[in-house]
Write a structure and sequence with these properties.
Shape: globular
Helix content: 10-25%
Number of helices: 2
Order of helices and strands: EEHEEEHE
Radius of gyration: 13 Å
CATH topology: Elongation Factor Tu (Ef-tu), domain 3
Largest sheet: 6 strands, antiparallel, barrel
CATH superfamily: AF2212/PG0164-like
CATH class: Mainly Beta
CATH architecture: Beta Barrel
Length: 97
Amino acid sequence: MIYRFDAPLWLYATQGAPWHFLTLPVEVGAGLKAMTGRTPGWGSIRVVVTVGETRWRTSVFPDRKSGSFLLPVKADVRRAEGLTAGDTARVTLEIEA
C-alpha cells in the first residue's frame, strides 16, 4: 500500500539535539495500524519514504497525542529538500516489505 499526503514539518526541541517530525494524517495512521497489526519496537513500523527527490528507509512511531504516527525527518533530507520547521512536505510512504 502506498500513501501520499502533505504534512507540516515541526520541531521537537530537547536538551540534546532537536528532532524534526511530520505527523501522519489520522486516516493514514489508521490504515497502517490495520495493515500491520501488532508491531515490535514501541509499535514502530518500517517504511520507505519519498519527499521531493529524496527517498530513504526509516520507521514511523505511534503518537498518543495525535492518534497517528510520527515520521522523523533527518537533517540530510531537510537540507536536500530545503525544508525547515513550518514548511509543508509532500510525502509518499510505503510499508517496507
